[in-house]
Amino acid sequence: MSWQAYTDNLIATGKIDKAALYSRAGDSLWAQSSGFQLDQKEIFELARGFDDPSQLQATGLHVLGVKYFLLRADERSIYGRQDTQGVICVRTKQTILLAHYPPTTVAGDATAVVEKLADYLISVGY
Asked: Transmembrane region positions (predicted)?
C-alpha cells in the first residue's frame, strides 16, 4: 500500500477531513490530503514536541497557522483543540500521523481512528 492510501483511508472514515504523513523526524512529507502540508517550522515544533512538550505547552500547537489548545502531549500522541475542531498527531517508529477533524466529529471517534492506524503501522515495523 502506498503512503497516500493511509491518508486517504483516514479521510474515508468520515471522522477525519484532512490528513498527512511525515517522517518521524518531520523532515519529509510522505503523503497528504489536498492542501494539508505544514510549513517547516510547524512540523519541526511538532516533531520535537513528542520528546519535549514544554514549548507546545507554553505556546500551543500550530497547524497551518491556526493555534490549537494543547490537550495532550507525550512520547506517542499530541492532541490539540480549537473551538469545535481539532488535530491528532501520533508518532510511530518511522512516521508522524497528523489528522484534522471537523466540528461535526466527536473528538474521541477521530482519535480512535488515528490511534488504530498508528497501532497498525507500529505492528508492521513502521
From this structure: none
Q: Alpha carbon of 125 to those of 25, 37, 94, 119, 120: distances in Å?
A: 16, 25, 8, 10, 9
CATH number at 16 reads: 3.30.450.30
Work out the angle between the directed axes of helices 3-12 and 107-123 (0-180°, nearest 10): 150
Nearest to 37 by CA among 90, 98, 79, 85: 98
- Predicted model pTM: 0.94
| Structural domains counted in the chain | 1
Place of cell 497528504: 32
Smallest Cα–Cα separation from 10: which of 84, 83, 105, 123? 105
**CA 48, CA 59: separation in Å to the nearest integer?**
14
